[in-house]
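User: quick one, fold this
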Amino acid sequence: MLLNTITPKDGTTVGVAMPVSVEFSKPVAASARATVERHLKVTTSTPVTGAWHWFGDTRVDWRPKDYWPAGTKVTVDADLTDVADGNGRYGTRSYRHTFTIGDDFRVAVSVPGHTMKITRDGKLIRTLPIDAGSPVFPSWDGTMAVMDKQRWVRMTSCSVGISCDKNDKANYYDLTLPWDVQLTGSGTYVHYSDADPYPGHANGSHGCVHLSLADAEWFYDHVEQGDPVTIKGSPRGDTAADNGYAAFTLTWSQWLAGSATGPR
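Assistant:
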C-alpha cells in the first residue's frame, strides 16, 4: 500500500481552508479504513478538532471543524508500515509532511451582486467587481479552497465538456489567459478574460469568475493555495467537496459521516 500524494506539499504555507488530502495508489477496502485512519496522524501547534472523510476508496481528506487558526504549524504522519488495505496489500513505509497555515485571507463572491469582497484577519481590504457564470453555464456555489495558481492557462471549451465543435460560435473557445487561480478540478478559475474586460455588469462566463486585468493580477499576487473562496447566489448549487479541495462546502455533521473513526 503506497501513497500517490499528500497535499499540501511538505514545507509549504497555505490558507485557512486547506484540508490534508491523502491519495492512495490502490483502493482501500471499507473494512480497512478505520485501521488506516488510526495510522494517519495530524499534529497541530494549536489544538483543533478535526476528522477524516473518505471520497471513494483511494482518497481521504482531513479538515478541522472550523477554519484553521492562522499561524498553526501542522505535521502529518502516515505510519503505514505493515498496515493492511483490505485488498491483500500492506504498507511498506512511513510518510511525513509539515506545513504552516498563513494569514486568514478569505474571499466572498456574490454572483447577483457582481462583487468579490476580500478580508484579511477579519478586516475588509478590497471589494472588486466580478462577473460569474451565465444562466446557461452558472458558476458553482460553495466554499472552495484555492487549488493552485498559474501565470497563464490555456482554456478550451472541449476540455470541460462544453463544445468541441469549432463551428459552435456561441460556445466554442480556445484561449490562453493570464492571472489564473484554480478553484475546482472541473475547471473553475478566477481570472481575467479579454471577452469581459469590464466586470461588474453581466454574468456571462462559462462558469469562471472574471476580474479586470488589473484586479486579476492583484488577486493572483495576494491569494495562496488553501485560501477559501466562497461563491453565493448562483443557481447551480454547491460543488462536490472532492471537486478540488472544497471540504468546507460540507457541514461538520456531513463531514463526520464520511469518517471511519469520528472526530479526533
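User: anything notable?
Assistant: The chain has a mean pLDDT of 95.
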